Amino acid sequence: MRYEGTIYRPPGEWKSYLLQCTVGCSYNECTFCEAYKSKSFRIKPLDYVIEDIKSAGILYPQTETVFLCDGDAIVLPMDYLLAVLNHVKAAFPKLRRITSYAGPISSMKKTPEELRRLCTAGLNRVYLGVETGDSELLAKVKKGVDAEEMLRAGLTLLEAGFDLWVTVIAGLEGGGEAYLRNTAMTAQLLNQMRPQHLSVMTYMPMYDTPMYEDILTGKMTVQSPRESLLETRELLRLLTLRGTHFTANHPSNILPLKGTIDDDTPRFLEMLDEEIPRASNRRTIRAHIHG
Question: Does any domain span residue 190?
């Protein structure tokens, strides 16, 4: 397939055919992220994308899942998105799911009726990067929305019928006990949103990002492994979700966790309680480069 630049996908989409509809991210201002900084956002010509779909249908007829990339396919115009969805369904007879990232700003720019139409047309699952429920921290990392707007975006996507996968990032507030405020607010937001899936990742400094520069200049400290585990434990303790699929098994996580919130929460807490005393209090910059 014809890809431009490095392609990113959620961990759960590792089996999916990756269909690049846009180049880059329509927002691309988050201070912790370097994923699309080398790309200028643009929408690929529709006929070009349709050619890719038809070619993939011939080469990979057994495809069951398709992920629309780059950073935020929800931003695409309705006519464009509906055409892509229709061609994807026609190309892959065994298709079970079409997914994409969904930015909070672009999601709210679509009307509830438009979102329902996209869901009905086959866009089954969307991934929303909540990151934190703390409005001050959302502003600091330049997410573009506050906690109330993030909650509204998530609820709107759920009401439209999407299978919603939310991600939050432990450690965005830095080291020390600042995580207690962040975690309380994040749990409050998630308890109101009630997504079907929740993933917790751990902040990893990325070269050439504003947040990395803050670390180098001493404006921010990085969480220690012990603090990261404590933050994950506190979040799980405060969540009142039931039946939500939960993962904390990204390469950034100190202790891999996977299961269902409520049913498996006691097991998660027990595992964390065993690991926390062994975890280091030393804060180091584990700089990471994608690709």
Answer: yes
